[in-house]
Specification:
Length: about 850
């Protein structure tokens, strides 16, 4: 039989609006809206979700949960931190050295953890960020004509582009390390084939993007994939001019691409193998000759990209996973590295000796050398809530201990090691100069390197950290760290006093929420942060309403305050950003109802019910809806749902009994301070973070929000009918004087119907009035499963906590003892009516 040829599936054309989500809102470039059909250009038909992020007012000047990365703007010395709360913050760390760092800028736009930051030297005044919301954003942080605001303060940075191409979290960015390099950058993330090379000029210029995209297919010059990565990428690096791109992935392989040739990006130019676990950090020297990697296999490795092999293996530095590694300067004489145990070491790359500099309380995620201080300080981002600055100078006596000073040779080798020609880097001629390949080979023992200046009040304890791989024979250069002869020295050094025990500057963050639970009333959420503080939050107010005494146990507090009530959950809650985030979707947002009188709506009658989700949405967007309606009237914009929107929707002068289910009953006040909205982008690929206080009523804001949210805020969304349940009401046969049976003993009513209303219904059917003006619940006793029902209990609560079965609830009624029974009511007969 002839084998049938498999037809290759044609790749769908990439929509340029998915790659670059342009559309300006208050100076922030955001995603575009849907067309007239209400369906996005990606065929995305599922209704989008809306998130609401709460925040404590005392956390406005700090990150919640700490930072994943740090970056320093070489222009003005502002330190930028990538927060796990979804924000990027700029810190003044130079103008007032005697005072704690002050937050001078807050960049809000990401809806997930910010994982990496880069300030490209070839584009001054620009900051790039990568996030778990699957986007890369470009921010204008300086260089404009209005670079400074009032009183000499720098103006707030603004987002100029949002780039969407990744299918999962974006974990790393890379830019050329020298000014004047190629104007492109790379991004890498989770999943296979998730490394992309972006044109920096087009990406940071919305007009250029729109011109370049034009048609249905994005221009290859805007963003092109670097294929061949078969695993998730956690680390990226470029050389000085952006000709070489290296990516470290979870399959323990470092892949290297030639970024100059578009056809050369179809697959890596070569691979570097030697690590046995995830490669977490990569650095390439400006000349593109050497590469430094740190891995979860507890080793550091120095690679010669020309020879395409490892020339230094350093398994004795860290006794745990190595997460970050950075050269001290462009000379690459020494390097700093941090591990999951919080220890940061300095390593002499020529002599393969290391010394413990300091130890953090948590694992070190990122290291950034402060070049503006002459390389004497380094900033750290950890798994904790603090960002610290440490001195990294060590004693000068180590020069005498290690022999004659040396350097990286001009051929890219350590201590004069010969580099083979013919490799990728040789063909690139990166710096445009000629390099000699006839250096004298000094041998391993003769290689030496200067550690640079600086002194410390403590004596530095140095220990052997690694060795060079041998060509043949001898010990295996890739042996596991546990078998390393230097492991004992490393452990001894770690127990010794560090060169710098305390940070010189600390930026403190707020403790993140680590545990939470919805209360049964589906309005309040109990939370506990990393410091053990237990707090209570009101979802309808988006605010903290109570803080419990120090030492309170979360489980005990929950059991004490959780009411016995059954209300369907109309939202989901998570704390991935360190703060509580509420998510609404049309499938569940309208599930909860309550009586207007119970919710405190003035002028409401006993029978009026309101939808909790609808009223919460109105409270969130009440001010914005009024501004949007006013703008639509001024511009005579008939396309918006707010055209003709009456101001009475947002006023207090209305009769609650005459309101439609989607109208604003004024049940909840507008949250103060305003929360932050998390809008799901068209296509579901990402989320957009939008502060409510920044909304001005524009049509771009309306397009950004989910369509059903806009309809609800304008009072036009069809609210589902009340959920109903059936139950039986019969006289209790076990009492001394049973009451008559009633007709229509099987009742179908809303699940929110209270027990007291059932008592009134029974009296009505019995054609009996409560004596002496008493309430119906004062005359009749309702029981379920032998227990008396509280008059305030709803039928849903009775079914869940008392009946506890899947079939219809059975209620029994009887006349209360001590209450005069009307004549002729007792007996086994059937009541008329």
């Amino acid at each position: 039989k002839k084998k049938k040829k498999k037809k290759k599936k044609k790749k769908k054309a990439t929509d340029p609006t998915r790659m670059y989500a342009h559309g300006v809102m208050n100076g922030v470039v955001l995603g575009g809206g849907t067309g007239d059909s209400g369906v996005s250009s990606f065929g995305f038909k599922r209704p989008r979700k809306l998130g609401v992020s709460t925040r404590r007012p005392d956390h406005d000047a700090s990150h919640v949960g700490g930072a994943n990365a740090v970056e320093i703007d070489d222009q003005d010395g502002i330190l930028y931190t990538a927060g796990r709360d979804g924000t990027i913050r700029g810190w003044d760390v130079e103008r007032q050295p005697s005072l704690p760092p002050r937050c001078v800028a807050v960049l809000e736009g990401h809806a997930g953890w910010v994982n990496d930051l880069k300030a490209p030297r070839q584009s001054p005044g620009t900051l790039l960020s990568a996030s778990s919301d699957r986007t890369v954003k470009a921010w204008r942080i300086g260089g404009d004509s209005d670079a400074h605001g009032a009183e000499g303060e720098p103006s707030q940075p603004r987002c100029v582009a949002t780039m969407e191409r990744h299918d999962d979290y974006v974990m790393a960015l890379a830019t050329p390390s020298r000014a004047g390099g190629r104007e492109h950058f790379a991004s890498g993330g989770l999943g296979a084939d998730n490394v992309y090379l972006w044109d920096a000029n087009v990406a940071t210029n919305p007009i250029g993007v729109l011109k370049a995209c034009g048609g249905d297919v994005a221009s290859p010059s805007i963003a092109r994939p670097l294929d061949g990565s078969k695993a998730s990428v956690y680390a990226l690096a470029m050389d000085g001019v952006g000709a070489v791109v290296a990516a470290g992935s979870t399959d323990a392989i470092v892949r290297v691409w030639d970024a100059r040739d578009p056809s050369g990006c179809a697959k890596p130019a070569f691979k570097l193998k030697g690590h046995s676990d995830n490669v977490r950090s990569i650095a390439i020297d400006p000349s593109g000759r050497m590469c430094l990697t740190a891995s979860s296999d507890r080793t550091l490795r120095l690679w010669d990209l020309g020879q395409r092999r490892c020339v230094q293996s350093l398994p004795g530095v860290h006794a745990c996973a190595a997460w970050a590694a950075r050269p001290a300067d462009d000379s690459w004489h020494r390097a700093y590295s941090g591990g999951s145990d919080g220890r940061v070491y300095v390593t002499d790359l020529a002599h393969r000796r290391s010394s413990l500099l300091f130890q953090e309380k948590h694992g070190v995620l990122d290291l950034r050398v402060d070049a503006r201080s002459g390389g004497k300080h380094v900033w750290t981002a950890t798994m904790g809530t603090e960002v610290n600055k440490y001195r990294v100078d060590v004693t000068s006596g180590e020069h005498d201990a290690f022999g004659v000073a040396g350097s990286i040779g001009s051929n890219g080798s350590i201590g004069g090691r010969r580099r083979q020609s013919g490799g990728l880097i040789d063909r690139m001629s990166i710096d445009g100069g000629s390099h000699s390949h006839s250096h004298h080979h000094h041998g391993e023992s003769g290689a030496s390197m200067s550690m640079g200046g600086g002194s410390s009040p403590h004596g530095a304890l140095w220990f052997s950290a690694g060795r060079s791989p041998r060509k043949s024979g001898g010990a295996n250069p890739f042996a596991s760290p546990s078998s390393s002869p230097f492991a004992a020295s490393s452990a001894a050094s770690a127990r010794a006093a560090a060169s710098h025990a305390l940070p010189s500057v600390t930026i403190r963050g707020a403790a993140p929420i680590v545990q939470h639970a919805q209360l049964n009333d589906r309005v309040r959420v109990l939370a506990k942060d990393a410091n053990g503080e237990v707090t209570l939050w009101d979802v309808t107010k988006c605010a903290l309403v109570r803080t419990f005494a120090p030492g309170s146990v979360f489980e005990d507090v929950l059991a004490a305050i959780n009411p016995i009530v059954a209300i369907p959950s109309w939202f989901t809650v998570d704390s991935r950003s360190g703060s509580l985030a509420i998510t609404l979707s049309p499938s569940g947002a309208f599930a909860a109802e309550a009586y207007a009188q119970e919710m405190g709506v003035p002028g409401a009658i006993a029978e009026t019910k309101i939808n909790v989700g609808v009223q919460t949405i109105h409270a969130l967007l009440r001010d914005w809806a009024a501004r949007r309606a006013a703008r639509a009237e001024d511009e005579n914009d008939t396309r918006t749902a707010f055209y003709g929107y009456s101001a009475a929707h947002a006023s207090d002068d209305h009769d609650p009994s005459k309101l439609d289910p989607c109208d604003d009953a004024g049940a909840f006040a507008t949250p103060d301070p305003p929360p932050v909205l998390l809008c799901e982008h068209h296509g579901g690929a990402s989320w957009v973070r939008v502060p409510v206080e920044g909304l001005r009523g524009g049509d771009d804001e309306e397009a950004l929000m989910p369509e059903w949210i806009v309809d609800c805020a304008s009072g036009r969304h069809p609210v589902p009918e009340s959920a109903k349940a059936s139950f039986f009401v019969n006289p209790d046969p076990d009492v001394e004087t049973p009451l008559p049976c009633i007709q229509n003993a099987r009742v179908t009513a809303p699940r929110v119907l209270q027990s007291r209303k059932v008592s009134a219904y029974v009296l009505q059917k019995l054609r009996v009035e409560a004596p002496g003006g008493a309430r119906p619940e004062d005359c009749l006793s309702l029981t379920c499963n032998g227990a008396e029902c509280d008059p305030n209990m709803s039928m849903a609560t009775i079914a869940k906590f008392m009946w506890k079965r899947g079939d219809e609830v059975q209620l029994l009624y009887s006349w209360r003892e001590g209450v005069p029974m009307p004549d002729g009511l007792g007996g086994d007969g059937l009541a008329s009516g």
